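From the thread on structure requests for the teaching lab: each student submitted one protein with a one-line request. Submission from student K.M.:

"Model ADP-ribosylation factor-like protein 4A from Sinocyclocheilus grahami, tokens only."
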Amino acid sequence: MGNGLSEPHAIFPCLPSFQALHIVILGLDCAGKTTVLYRLRFNEFVNTVPTKGFNTEKIKVTLGGKVRTAAFHFWDVGGQEKLRPLWRSYTRCADGLVFVVDSVDAERMEEAKTELHKITRLQENQGVPVLVVANKQDLRSALPLGEVEQMLALNELGSHTPWHLQPACAIIGEGLQEGLERLHSMINKRRKMMRQQKRKR
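Reply posted by the TA:
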């Protein structure tokens, strides 16, 4: 488990396709990003504190019912307002983004929407697939998935940004496997398209 601040761009070379996929976990503070990371890493609930810098883990994930595995290198970046300007450094060369939202926190959904649209509109993130994790869906006061989609204006992300909205409960891990499978599929589809475009040139 790593938690600290450093110059991210110095340690993020663009990864060759055979290496672990570079995935950045973003979202507002207290959305459950670190809970998602450690549920994936240890397959159990780990009590966390607000991330002051970043956490990073390399995780092998079984896809499609134990048929194959994929290696993911996750970077979970702090979501406090003062840390959000750093997000851009972490998303450089990212294969995919995981954006975690608190489904119960309707008041901050507009803020989450602003940050999501801001990061996906950066030139270097054009076309990078986004898995939006609607966390805390197990709670009675959670917003329905349709409302989360509407409030985040996911349809306004544009045709250049593939996205998938996944209902989840990070504490028990529900929905995370399915979400990662969709993300992996979107990344593969994008890579295939990029290879085809290169051949056409």
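TA comment: The longest strand covers residues 54-63. DSSP finds five helices and six strands in the chain.
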